[in-house]
Amino acid sequence: MDVPRGHFAYLAEGIAEVVDVPVVACNRINSPTIAERILQRGKAQLIGMSRGFIADPELPEKVRAGKNETIRNCIGCNLGCLDKVFLLEPVICAINPLAGYEYERKIGPPGKGNIAVIGAGPAGMETARILKLRGFDVTLYEKDDRVGGLLNLASKVPLRGEFATYVVHMERELNRLGVKLKLGHRATVEALVESKYDAIVCATGTIASAPPIDGVEMAHVTSAYNVIGREMENLRKVSILGASALGCYAALDLASRATRVDLFSFGNRVGDDIGLSTRWVIMKALKERKIKIREEEKIDQITSSYLMLDGGEETTLVKTNTVVTASKPQPRTRLIEKLEAAGISVELVGSVKRSMNLLDCVHDAFSFANGFNP
Ligand SMILES: Cc1cc2nc3c(=O)[nH]c(=O)nc-3n(C[C@H](O)[C@H](O)[C@H](O)COP(=O)(O)OP(=O)(O)OC[C@H]3O[C@@H](n4cnc5c(N)ncnc54)[C@H](O)[C@@H]3O)c2cc1C
Ligand SMILES: Cc1cc2nc3c(=O)[nH]c(=O)nc-3n(C[C@H](O)[C@H](O)[C@H](O)COP(=O)(O)O)c2cc1C
Ligand code: SF4
Predict the structure, then answer these.
(1) Quick one: pLDDT at residue 274?
(2) Is 38 exposed, middle or buried (0-12, 13-18, 19+ CB in 10 A)?
(3) 78 CB under 6 A from ligand 3?
(4) From the CB of 91, is ligand 2 less than 6 Å away?
(5) I need a surface site. Which of 9, 123, 227, 229 has the fewest CB within 10 A?
(6) pLDDT tens per residue, range 64-118
(7) Distances (CA, A) of 149 to 122, 222, 270, 344, 361
């Protein structure tokens, strides 16, 4: 994802200039448009695609049929392919739940019924897609004015922009299949009861959480969800509390809007939840942006201009103007609790169940929707 599309074609073209055999251009060529652009330059004669065919093995057929707009373009996340190779696990795909499961997984039997899916993040979108493919009547509620959930935030982080490609693809697919998309609609118990659905599936995702530190409620303390991708004036000295993926991405994003960024890992491995093939890129980017990783295990207190660090015998003060919390998010369960209190049973998919990345959300949603019977 950090390599721009078609970026290494210039190498193939350089080789083509000095040899007289056909040369294949490859790496991050994920769409016919990019492939065609490279071929048109007249230097490389062939195009090689690897991950593009894992994400959408029907790509050549779709091009032949003039249906380029239905191609599920590889987003270069490496979550299901190269990360798995490095772990010596079978290759699958984050956004194509059939890849690697061609023998076991087929789209389930036809189903009938009127289903509400709440939340149009990756889990809700995949649930709606598969249910609709199976013939259910599906309404997808999203409180925001666009689909994508947290992927919209993730795509604003430097080097992570390609998540947006998947969101655009899924919205197009949902519309093409005829899923009823209710954007800007916060699902409520009343509205759901009134619509008499045969089943309700909650894919409501997560909400930000803050660590239990004195002072965390102060005005200059905010969550990573509130700052990533936002136009802001210089936040000056920023301390980010938590150095898993969320903290790292917040640091990368804020580096251009701060005079200094300190990333507190609390003794944990930085970027512990980032895949092998991506973590080193993120670590390098943190270094290049001069983000200081601090391994202190405990912060005693947040004051209006300092963090007080517990150093045993003595307390260290770290000057801070903005504190950003990047703790593990918590499941968003309010609607679920209300529905259950009203005696309405609910199915759960995606990160509302437990911490899940994109791959886990898509595969969880597929497995649920494909095996579902109301
Ligand atoms: C900055 C950032 C970077 C990330 N980077 C990566 C990465 O590199 N790789 C990776 O795999 N994952 C990454 N993630 C995590 C990934 O975005 C999540 O795993 C994924 O989005 C979770 O999907 P979900 O569908 O379960 O929930 P969400 O994406 O949270 O979607 C839930 C949706 O439900 C909607 N909703 C909630 N309640 C209601 C209601 N009552 N009515 C209607 N709609 C409702 C919400 O508005 C939201 O759109 C990142 C996340 C962030 C924040
Ligand atoms: C699952 C998988 C396995 C791969 N195995 C090899 C390999 O054994 N040797 C190699 O040189 N490249 C290997 N590659 C790299 C690809 O050949 C290719 O260079 C790379 O994926 C970039 O092209 P792409 O963007 O079209 O995927 C592998 C890639 C993937 C996704
Ligand atoms: S897991 Fe990600 S990088 Fe690998 S093929 Fe699928 S979309 Fe592409």
Answers:
(1) 92
(2) buried
(3) yes
(4) yes
(5) 229
(6) 999 999 999 999 999 999 999 999 999 999 999 999 999 999 998 999 999 999 9
(7) 7, 20, 25, 25, 12
Mutate to test the pocket of ligand 2, among 1, 5, 50 (most ligand atoms within 8 A of CB): 50
Stretch (H or E) spanning 250: helix 245-254
Would you kindly state where each structural domain of the chain is located, as residue ranges?
Answer: 9-76, 114-207+330-371, 221-325
Burial of 18 (C-beta count, 10 Å sphere; 0-12/13-18/19+)? exposed
Number of H helices, E strands in the chain: 14, 17
Taking a C-beta distance cutoff of 8 angstroms, is the pair 137, 114 a contact? yes
Nearest ligand atom owner, CA of 78: 3
Residue 221 beta carbon below 6 angstroms from any ligand 3 atom:
no
DSSP 236: -
CATH number (3.40.50.20, 3.30.420.40, 3.40.50.720, 3.30.1370.10) of 114-207+330-371 reads 3.40.50.720
Are 72 and 169 within 8 A, CB to CB? yes
Please give the structure tokens belonging to residue 247: 């903290």
pLDDT above 70: percentage of residues in the chain: 100
